[in-house]
Amino acid sequence: MKRRSLVSGVICISLSSLAMPAFSMTDKKMEKKILVVYFSKTNHTKNVAETISRLTGADLLRVDVVEPYPEAYRPTTEVVKKELEENIIRKIKAPSVDLSKYDVIVFGTPTWWHHVSMPLQTWIKENSFKGKTVATYNTDGGGGTMHTEEDFQKLLKGNKLLPHMTIFGSNDDQTAELSKWLKEINLIK
Ligand SMILES: Cc1cc2nc3c(=O)[nH]c(=O)nc-3n(C[C@H](O)[C@H](O)[C@H](O)COP(=O)(O)O)c2cc1C
Does the CB atom of residue 169 touch ligand 1 within 6 A? Predict the structure, then answer.
C-alpha cells in the first residue's frame, strides 16, 4: 500500500513538471507568448533580440538573405543603395513558424539608409499576422530613429502597435535600457 502511494506520488510530480511552460516563469516575466522577428547583418540587432528573449522568455526568429550581402560595410551600403533605388527585392529565408500561437510579435531591424532594412520588410509583407499586438525597434549607427518608426507604422497597419524603441547598434550589454522599454510597454513587470 505504502509502495503504491509512493509510486503515484512520483507520477504526480512528473506530470506536474510536464505541464510547466516551455520557459520557466520568473516573477518578472508575463504570461504572454512573444516572438522576436529580426534581421541583422553585424549582430547588433541580434544582440538586442537575444536580450529581449532573456528578459521576456520570447522565442527568436532570424530573417536571413539567400544571397549574402558583401562582408565589408561600405560595399554593403552601396549594394543596398542600388537595391533601394531600383526596388530590387533580395530573396529571404527564415524558419516557418505558427504565428497564431503568439500574443505579441516584436520586430527588430538595423537602420538601412534611414529605413527599415529591406529583408525585414520582405518578411513582414510575406507573412500574415493581422490584428496581432506588435512592438518594434531599430538599432542605428548614430542616426537615431530616422524613418524606421513611420516605416513600421505603414508596414504594420492593421496591427496594434506598442511604442517604438531606438537603441544604438552595439554588442554591449543593453539590458538596462531594454528592460526599461519592456516595462513601459508592459511585456515585463
Ligand atoms: C546598408 C547600411 C545602411 C545603413 N544606414 C544607416 C543609416 O541610415 N543611419 C544610421 O544611423 N545607421 C545606418 N547604418 C548602420 C546600422 O544601422 C547599424 O550599425 C546597425 O546597428 C547594424 O545592425 P546589425 O548589426 O544588426 O546589422 C547602416 C548600415 C548599413 C550596412
Answer: yes
